[in-house]
Design brief:
mainly beta
Length: about 70
């Protein structure tokens, strides 16, 4: 099954239900609530890391055609 955890998160996110080849900049986009794209790094075969200095709040993660609402604490 497809999922993102943990949520809320601090900086690291695990993405389940996708192949490691789908964890790339073309298929994963991260936005803040204002719609600005937020930078992240791919930190593992199914993991991304968001800048720990990014402000707390709501983020939108798009993985291929799916959209997830995430809370950064």
């Amino acid at each position: 099954t497809f999922g993102i955890f943990p949520n809320p998160f601090k900086s690291d996110l695990q993405i389940t239900g996708v192949s490691a080849s789908d964890v790339n900049r073309r298929s994963i986009k991260l936005y803040n609530v204002a719609g600005k794209e937020i930078n992240y790094t791919i930190s593992g075969s199914n993991a991304i890391t968001i800048d720990a200095n990014a402000p707390r709040g709501v983020y939108i993660l798009r993985v291929m055609e799916r959209t997830f609402k995430l809370i950064k604490e």
